[in-house]
Amino acid sequence: MPVSSGADFPTNTIDRAENIQVDCYVRSDVPAPVAETINALTKRLQQLCDHGPISDFQVSQWPPEHHGVTKTDEMRPTRDELVAEFEQWAEQHDYTLEPAFRRNEIPSSPLGLESNETHERVRVPFVAIALYEADTENGPDTEALRGVVPYTEGSDTVEDRTYTVQEWLSTLEAKECEKSPDSQYDQAAALEGAP
Known about the structure:
- The chain is α+β, with helices and mostly antiparallel strands.
- The protein contains 6 helices and 9 strands, in the order αβαβααβββββββαα.
- The chain has a 4-stranded mixed beta sheet with strand order 2-1-6-7.
- Helix 2 (32-51) packs parallel to helix 5.
- The longest helix is centred in the N-terminal third of the chain and has 20 residues, at 32-51.
- The protein is globular.
- Residues 56-76 are annotated as: Disordered.
- Pfam families: HTH_63 (PF20575).
């Protein structure tokens, strides 16, 4: 796949006739500037939902790493399960989720005492989106993962290229502007006296 078309993968799979749900996952411990960026992303998602190719979206915090003791936690996938699903999608499409997602080995002892036991911890980005399409063949509650952003593509002939949530939204917004000649952007230009 050429580098120039990489950002198109998740956006070119979206069609208004499809039931595309965007799940936006955010970290709970974000600094104020990142929180402002996430709020702006949420507004952009809302505009795409209102006027664009996505049918619905939700913003939620990354799930816990392990199942809790409550029944509601058991119904949601853990962070590890969710990231494993994302990694499977990336592998099927010859992408990787690194460096945005990373698995690290950490010692079992919180004090760093020598121990042979370690466990793996998944580091997730501040914000990521997953694109799901409702699977009408297997029932209304079944969803198929269509894409994950951020992701990285690379090949033996070119440098690795990571695509961000911001780039994905910009690409999708640009496609919507091309489809709709009387979009809000064109209306704003007309009001400002632009040709």
